[in-house]
């Protein structure tokens, strides 16, 4: 079992990841910006990378799961917000890695958050981990974020870049925000509705991270998405049908661009048909491979059907 250092433990993914890591026997240390309130928390200044190790100064860190980063979908983008996105990802990751390299023994595994936004607009094409990066703001942001972890590979650390799709959960993220308008009958497709959406359940997302922690064959990029992406029109129809509500509304592209600016094309209208090729090739099993059964489960507060992944 490993000693795992986790950043972003209070977020949507981290909130489920921590108990799941403990369940399988790992020991956890969590990086927190504020004064620790329990023994497994370490005070951390993200921009400088400084960590108050306290009694853990000599504790070997076997692995790091780095999830911290400013939420790109919370507010309309501005020049200042885009600088925050970069500093909270690239500067923070670089500073954290310099702190890890200064320890007597760097971690043997580093799993860093990234995003499928790295691929940019891809239309109808299938995307896998070998696909080239895009050229828009989000693509460059994700590419630079991944490059920030390069110094660890130079000392023999296995670095995994977890490229997340849209993570679906009732407890937060984009799906939780969609529920209210759809429940009131105001849901509908975005733009033409033909853009591909690559998604993953929160439970499968966390399972993939734990799998990557143990699977030594995985390094570099992995697409953390379901094997069955859907078009936006299918996504919205499925959600409306599951809620027994109409799906009559349609938000034209020009309205989305007025409301959300650059975010509209980068987050809402972009088509990305992404395959989790490397996860599947190494034997990862999804609990929620299909969208409609997942939505039914989420809306009925059911737990996923357990699946066994290779040890």
User: What are the segments in which pLDDT stays under 50 over at least 5 consecutive residues?
Assistant: none
Mass-distribution shape = globular
Major sheet characteristics? 8 strands, mixed
Cα end-to-end separation: 12 Å
What is the mean predicted local confidence, pLDDT?
93
- According to CATH, the homologous superfamily is NAD(P)-binding Rossmann-like Domain
Total number of domains = 1
The level of helicity is 25-40%
Q: What is the CATH topology descriptor?
A: Rossmann fold
Total of helices: 11
The percentage of residues in β strands lies in 15-25%
Strand arrangement, major sheet = 4-3-2-1-5-6-8-13
**Secondary-structure class:** alpha/beta
Polypeptide structure, described:
The chain has 311 residues and is α/β, with parallel strands linked by helices. It has a single domain (3-299), classed as NAD(P)-binding Rossmann-like Domain (Rossmann fold), CATH 3.40.50.720. 37% of the residues lie in helices and 19% in strands. It has helices at 12-23, 79-101, 137-147, 150-153, 173-183, 202-214, 232-243, 253-260, 262-268, 277-281, 291-299, and strands at 3-7, 27-32, 41-44, 51-52, 63-66, 109-115, 126-127, 158-164, 166-168, 188-190, 196-197, 199-201, 220-224, 230-231, 249-251, 273-274. It has an eight-stranded mixed β-sheet, sandwiched between helices. A two-stranded parallel ribbon has the order 7-16. The protein is globular and about 60 Å long.
């Amino acid at each position: 079992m490993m000693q795992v250092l986790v950043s972003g433990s209070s977020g949507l993914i981290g909130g489920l990841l921590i108990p799941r890591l403990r369940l399988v026997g790992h020991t956890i240390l969590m990086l927190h910006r504020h004064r620790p309130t329990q023994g497994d928390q370490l005070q951390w200044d993200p921009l400088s990378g400084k960590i108050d190790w306290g009694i853990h100064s000599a504790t070997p860190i076997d692995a790091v799961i780095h999830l911290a980063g400013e939420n790109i979908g919370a507010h309309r983008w501005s020049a200042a917000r885009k600088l925050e996105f970069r500093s909270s990802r690239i500067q923070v990751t670089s500073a954290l890695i310099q702190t890890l390299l200064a320890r007597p023994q760097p971690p043997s595994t580093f799993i860093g958050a990234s995003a499928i936004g790295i691929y940019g607009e891809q239309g109808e094409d299938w995307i896998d981990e070998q696909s080239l990066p895009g050229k828009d703001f989000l693509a460059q942001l994700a590419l630079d974020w991944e490059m920030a972890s390069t110094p660890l590979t130079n000392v023999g650390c296995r670095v995994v870049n977890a490229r997340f799709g849209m993570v679906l959960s009732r407890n937060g993220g984009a799906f939780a925000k969609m529920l209210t308008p759809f429940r009131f009958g105001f849901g509908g497709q975005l733009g033409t509705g033909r853009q591909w959406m690559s998604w993953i359940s929160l439970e499968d997302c966390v399972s993939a991270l734990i799998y990557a922690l143990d699977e030594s064959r995985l390094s570099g990029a992995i697409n953390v998405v379901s094997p069955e992406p859907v078009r936006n029109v299918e996504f919205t129809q499925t959600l409306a049908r599951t809620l027994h509500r109409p799906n009559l509304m349609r938000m034209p592209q020009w309205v989305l661009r007025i409301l959300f600016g650059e975010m509209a094309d980068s987050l809402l209208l972009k088509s990305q048909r992404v395959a989790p090729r490397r996860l599947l090739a190494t034997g990862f099993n999804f609990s929620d491979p299909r969208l409609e059964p997942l939505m039914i489960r989420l809306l009925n507060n059911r737990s996923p059907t357990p699946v066994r992944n290779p040890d």
